[in-house]
Amino acid sequence: MYYYNEEKIRIAGIVEESIVDGPGLRFVIFTQGCPHNCKGCHNPQTHDFNGGEEIPIEGIIEKIKSNPLLKGITLSGGEPFMQAKALSILLDKIKDTKLDIITYTGFRFEELLQKENDENCFMELLERTDIIIDGKFEEDKKNENLMYRGSSNQRAIDVKLSIQTGKIVEYEF
Ligand code: SF4
Question: Ligand 1 atom 1: the closest Cα is on which residue?
Answer without folding.
Answer: 106
